[in-house]
Design a protein that fits this description.
It is a single chain. The chain has 303 residues and is α/β, with parallel strands linked by helices. The protein has a single domain, classed as Aminopeptidase. The protein contains seven helices and seven strands. Strands 1-2-3-5-4-6-7 form a seven-stranded mixed β-sheet, with helices on both faces. The structure holds zinc ion. The site of zinc ion has 4 residues, from loops.
Length: 303
Amino acid sequence: MRDPENVRIRTLVAAATVALLLTATSCAENEPETAVTLAPLAVEPVAAPTTIPPGPGPPDGPTTTTTDPGVVEGLDELDDLDGFDGIEAGSEVVIGRSVEDRPITVVRRGDEGGTRVLVVGVIHGDEDAGADIVDVLRLADVPDGVELWLVRSMNPDGQAAQERHNAHGVDLNRNFSHNWGPVAEPGNWEYAGEGPASEPETQAMTALGEGVHPDLVLWYHQDLFRISPGSGRDGEIRARYAGLTGLPLVEVTGGTYTGTASQWSRTVVDSGGVGFTIELGPSLTPDEVTTHAEAVLTIASEM
Ligand SMILES: [Zn+2]
């Protein structure tokens, strides 16, 4: 197991690095005038992840992972609250549990009643660079009129194993109930599960989406380095995010896109709402993490 103190120190070092990089990026030319620039961190409204929650894991194998999928222990459970409205800004709540009983959590931040932005850092467990973006958003100043709902990972088992699927071998990005189809068989990279929203991770996210009705939902993946173009307002927002982060607007192809998270998310957004996938590259530097976090806050504040 990873030493929690070690993780805490790494987290503090990462935060300090972000603060330094913010100083550097604020001097950059060519930044759009209206783009949000993150201020150096003053307070820590939500504790950063410090421990890996227990899971069975391999009996003798190494348990070290490149990215910590853990959350702080002792969190409130959604079942004990008055629904999603009972989640106070600044708090982190367990909204469900994975196949291997790891908690899936949401952090609510910012203006209650503002533009609601749901950000999901990880859905495919071996594509977890988006967790770093969520970690910055967990600490950043939130612009007025914006409310963040932050899910660091909806697939903590896959992330712990550095594996695309959940612990049932299901591709969670084919398991959502909207437009679900029986894709492939167990063992296949796109296996959609036994039925619509058959997986506990999908059920947790479905309840969150239906309970919160966000205005914008962002899903991070790797490593195609692109955002699929859209039309109308949806297309404008995608293009804005792409422009802020340097991602090209290029269609994502090559899969069977039934039961996907982004399609489902467009069924729960309020009218005029938007949900789309962001395909990051193979890795993110700390300043790229900051750029993406700023882009999230910028497009949210412009909605
Ligand atoms: Zn993916």
